[in-house]
Design a protein that fits this description.
The complex is a heterotrimer of chains A (about 220), B (about 280) and C (about 250). Chain A is an all-alpha fold. Chain A has helices spanning about 5-45, 50-65, 65-75, 85-110, 115-125, 130-145, 145-160, 170-180, 185-215. Chain A has one domain (about 5-215): MetI-like (MetI-like fold), CATH 1.10.3720. Chain A is flat and about 70 Å long. Chain B has 11 helices and no strands. The two termini of chain B are about 20 Å apart. Helices cover about 40% and strands about 25% of the residues of chain C. Chain C has 10 helices and 10 strands. Chain C has helices at about 5, 45-55, 75-85, 100-110, 115-130, 145-160, 175-190, 205-210, 225-230, 235-249; strands at about 5-20, 20-30, 35-40, 60-65, 70, 85-90, 165-170, 195-200, 210-215, 220-225. In chain C, strands 6-7-8-3-9-10 form a 6-stranded mixed beta sheet, with helices on both faces. In chain C, strands 2-1-4-5 form a 4-stranded antiparallel beta sheet. Classes of the chains: A mainly alpha (about 220), B mainly alpha (about 280), C alpha/beta (about 250). Chains A and B meet through helix 2, helix 3, helix 5, helix 7 and helix 8 of A and helix 1, helix 2, helix 5, helix 6 and helix 9 of B.
């Protein structure tokens, strides 16, 4: 099938698939970012049980495979009366896994802040919370722009898991399997999806680089 | 003073005063109760839904269960190792393209790297599973899973290798060349081995991604851990316990790989340090 | 004249340990308004630690530290308020890497003293002019030389109108050609009547600017005298030995 025929027949589905992938990516990344910050606060807090809980969370979700987690959420959780929609199931996976990595990146961003800056801020009479808002947050976030850009791309890649559940509309990966089981899409169906992913990834990378150039901290 | 052991916590907080100490104690107790409550709720949920019943768990006491899961794990590792080697080969070629002086090679290598990094593994799996057979090419299940996983990882591995090459001091190359070694010979015998040693930790860390990606093996009917888990589930009608155990196995494998990476990094650090001093 | 009212910093029987190591031994010291006190001694003598205990960057294990007659609180807002009265200049400048030079100077006046932004900026520009780096105001710290950064750090301390400024080896991290530009600023501050406690290896500065020189070794104050008397005629053997090693350089 030529690209023209394919787009004539499945054009609408492709647009919907693209939007689904974008939607999943945007929601997942935003939520992962928020959770990542919360988990980071738990990990650096002076409260031991929270440290342990945060560390456990990180180890579980950075090491679990996306498929294994998706299977658990979709098929196993209903057995303990936790039933989510397919869309929510996918979101749970595409939020939890990136959130663990998000926390790791923010932690290493935090480690780039020189100890002396904390002492200087204390000596000037800044309170603990002022130090957090004025120094820790801005510097660790600025230092993690590029890792977080890569995280946004890998979050997008993770959303391909959506193709593993019967979701309507499906995503950019699901549509390739859909077309190829209904018609002989050949390589074209694959290439169109791949290009849409690629364009999205390049766009995310471009935005991330622009932000990084603006906020990068000279050292 | 021991500065190597300072964590971000030591830098963030000052020695607590009386009030702060009391607050930390209160929050420690409260958060401990909260964590325990969370665990209690989860276990209770398992209990009231009958998921703790012996019939869902007894087969984990049977050796055959573990042998079967072990076979699945062997499949996972086989696919991961094969994918790892292919990925390394592809990455090596892309890296050569990237550091080459010929513009066209650079452009092709860059495009390939961007492609592999911007396209999900699962899409590549479908390519090898659904699209390739349409052109009359039949691949064994092992290749159907290893190839897409390898391609998917190769772009990042190529960049890792390139960063290793860049980390090798230029003087090494020049010294070898001045001894009359040819450019290609210098690269293979002097530069690359060192670069490789620098990036071993990153390569191990990359294996984590490969292992995770092999879970798509069920799509192509390759018997990996996930696939065997599904068989167990249908045999014993125990969805939750089996998926839970499998998830834990993946977490442990990848946790160990990450630890190995950190260990390797500390070793390369210490060897480079002693070499420098 | 009321002697007590003049004392800004007072240390009484201060002791500190790093684990087994006794780093400050029964330190008694007071600094009066308008005084320039210079602490010298070999590295590892505890002089830097002593300086850092005064605004509680290091806690102490015994004794008392009074600022303006009040003991330093151990935590919270009260501690922050007291610290704001004591300026500090560090060996490694410690400017905030992500903010401009101007922001570095205005941050604390705005956040801690709640000054209006305009006013804080106008004053900051004057201070930057005074230390000779006003032309760099829009840059970030990494774009400045070490000497320039240290002068900004001094302006930053001055912006808080502190009652006293602590200098913790302010020139030790600088290239030789930049040391004087910082010492010149410090000298002019001293001439203007700023109360200063300076930990340094710069003997010429101590000789010219100090009202009082304190010699420390092994965590204890061994000698305390006018610079003239101390440099001409040190009383202890160890001070003599120390002065011999530094005059060689």
């Amino acid at each position: 099938m030529s690209a023209e025929e394919l787009l004539n027949q499945y054009g609408n589905e492709y647009v919907q698939a693209l939007f689904t992938t974008w939607k999943l990516t945007a929601i997942s990344f935003s939520a992962a970012f928020v959770i990542g910050i919360i988990v980071t606060v738990m990990r650096v807090s002076p409260i031991k049980p929270l440290n342990a809980a945060g560390e456990f969370y990180i180890q579980v979700f950075r090491n679990i495979s996306g498929t294994a987690l998706l299977m658990l959420v979709v098929y196993a959780l209903p057995y303990i009366n936790v039933v989510l929609s397919y869309f929510s199931c996918v979101l749970v996976v595409t939020i939890l896994i990136p959130s663990a990595f998000c926390s790791e990146y923010i932690m290493s961003g935090m480690n780039t802040i020189g100890r002396g800056q904390f002492e200087a801020a204390r000596a000037l009479g800044l309170t603990f919370m002022q130090i957090i808002y004025r120094i820790v947050l801005p510097q660790s976030l600025r230092a993690s722009v590029l890792p977080l850009t890569n995280l946004a791309v890998s979050t997008m890649l993770t959303t391909a898991l959506a193709s593993q559940v019967p979701m309507k509309p499906t995503d950019l990966t699901g549509i390739v399997s859909y077309i190829n089981t209904h018609a002989v899409g050949g390589v074209t169906a694959f290439v169109i999806s791949a290009m849409m992913y690629l364009a999205t990834a390049l766009f995310i990378g471009w935005v991330g680089n622009r932000i990084d150039q603006k906020v990068r901290i000279l050292r | 003073m021991n500065t190597s052991q300072t964590s971000i916590r030591d830098i963030l907080y000052e020695p607590p005063g009386v009030k702060t100490k009391r607050m930390i104690q209160v929050f420690t107790v409260l958060s401990f109760i909260a964590v325990m409550l969370l665990i209690y709720v989860a276990v209770r949920q398992f209990y009231i839904t009958g998921q703790l019943d012996a019939r869902y768990w007894y087969f984990f006491a049977k050796p055959t269960t573990w042998i079967f899961l072990g076979e699945g794990l062997a499949g996972t590792l086989e696919a991961a190792v094969v994918a790892g080697f292919i990925s390394f080969g592809l990455a090596f070629l892309m890296m050569l393209g990237r550091i080459n002086n010929i513009r066209a090679f650079q452009a092709i290598a860059r495009a390939l790297i961007e492609f592999t990094r911007g396209v999900p593994t699962l899409l590549l799996v479908y390519f090898f599973f659904l699209v390739v057979p349409q052109y009359g090419i039949t691949l064994a299940p092992l290749w159907r899973i290893s190839l897409p996983v390898a391609i998917s990882a190769s772009g990042i591995v190529a960049e890792v290798l390139r960063s290793g090459i860049n980390a090798v001091p230029n003087g090494q190359r020049e010294a070898a060349m001045s001894l009359g070694m040819k450019e290609s010979h210098t690269f293979l015998k002097v530069v690359f081995p060192q670069a490789f040693r620098y990036v071993i930790p990153s390569l191990i860390a990359e294996l984590v991604i490969v292992v995770k990606d092999t879970t798509f093996a069920y799509v192509v009917n390759f018997p990996d851990l996930m696939q065997n888990a599904k068989v167990l589930i249908s045999n014993y009608n125990a969805m939750l316990p089996v998926y839970l155990v499998v998830a834990v196995i993946y977490i442990i494998i990848n946790y160990l790989l990450n630890k190995a990476s950190v260990y390797a990094a500390s070793r390369t650090d210490s060897t480079t340090n002693t070499a420098a001093s | 004249m009321d002697h007590k009212a003049d004392v800004i910093i007072e240390l009484k029987q201060v002791n500190k340990f790093f684990g087994e190591h006794h780093v400050l031994k029964d330190i008694n010291l007071s600094v009066k308004k308008g005084e320039v006190v210079v602490i010298i001694g070999p590295s590892g003598s505890g002089k830097s630690t002593l300086c850092r205990t005064i605004n509680r960057l290091e806690t102490i294990d015994g004794g008392e530290i009074l600022i303006d007659g009040e003991e330093m609180p151990s935590e919270g807002k009260k501690l922050a308020e007291m610290r704001a009265k004591v300026g500090m200049v560090f060996q490694s400048f410690n400017l905030l890497a992500h903010r401009t030079i101007l922001d570095n100077v205005t941050l604390a006046p705005i956040d801690v003293l709640h000054k209006p932004k305009k006013e804080a900026q106008a004053e900051a520009m004057q201070l930057l002019k005074r230390v000779g780096v006003d032309s760099q105001a829009a840059k970030v710290p990494a774009q400045l030389s070490g000497g320039q950064q240290q002068r900004v750090a001094i302006a930053r301390a001055l912006a808080m109108h502190p009652e006293v400024i602590l200098f913790d080896e302010p020139t030790s991290a600088l290239d030789p050609e930049m040391i004087n530009e910082v010492l010149d600023v410090m000298t002019s501050l001293a001439k203007d009547g700023m109360t200063m406690l300076v930990v340094t290896h710069e003997m010429n500065f101590a000789r010219r600017v100090a009202n009082r020189v304190i010699f420390m070794e092994d965590g204890a104050i061994l000698e305390e005298n006018t610079p003239e008397a101390f440099f001409a005629n040190p009383k202890t053997e160890r001070a003599k030995a120390f002065l011999e090693t530094v005059t060689v350089h």
